[in-house]
Amino acid sequence: MKLLLLVTIVTVIILSIWRYRTRSRRRRKHVSLTTMPSDFTLNPTPLLGEDEVALYNLLRMVVQERYLVFAKVPLGSFLTVDAVGGKERVQVLRQLALKRVDFALVHPGSRLVEQVVQVESQSPELHQVESQQIIESLLETAGIKLRKLQAKKTYPLAHLATRLEIAAND
After folding, report:
1. CB contact at 8 A, 115 and 147
2. CA atoms within 13 A on the CB side of 168
3. Where do the structural domains in the chain lie, given as residue ranges?
4. Rounded distance, CA 59 to CA 75, Å?
5. CA distance 47 to 49
6. What is the enclosing helix (H) or strand (E) of 50?
7. How far apart are CA 22 and CA 18, in angstroms?
8. What is the per-residue pLDDT for 123?
């Protein structure tokens, strides 16, 4: 009986020490973003490519005061997930994570995204195709119109307005 008690006490002590050490290691690995390491640098990078900037400017001219145009918008910033079950909600949130649309057309009054413009890639990779399918499915479920355009193509304003279903008198 004394031997069993001694083994139990030693086991508890060893587990406590092990647990304390693993926790302290985790804390040390955490990088504080208030003080950057000296060998770490961050550099700004362009948000849009040259072709995307041209398309952005065309979109702004076409939609004028009807929509606000935002670029590279994360899906989670304009879609909310309402689900009864927790598992379903988590699955949809995982689908939303790290996905973004190229351009979001936002109604200035309601502040809701009414249309999304995606720039079609010339030769998309498999993960891009899968990601695009998820985005399309989520937008369809939310009732948001999706328009696909090519960045390298030049669109006349009237043609672009037609593609976005914006009437001339709007």
Report:
1. yes
2. 3
3. 50-163
4. 20
5. 7
6. helix 50-63
7. 6
8. 78
* pLDDT single digits (tens) 78-112: 998 887 677 888 888 888 888 999 999 999 999 99
Residue 25: the pLDDT is 65
Do residues 55 and 119 make contact, with C-beta atoms less than 8 angstroms apart? yes
Q: Provide the pLDDT for residue 69.
A: 97
pTM for the model: 0.73
Task: List, edge to edge, every strand of the sheet that includes 113-120.
Answer: 68-74, 100-106, 113-120, 145-150
> In the numeric block, which tokens belong to residue 110?
């309601």
The candidate with the shortest Cα–Cα distance to 151, out of 110, 120, 111, is 120
| Dihedral sign (CA 62, 63, 69, 74) | negative
Give the sign of the dihedral formed by CA 18, CA 24, CA 30, CA 36: negative
* Positions of the chain with pLDDT lower than 50, given as ranges: none
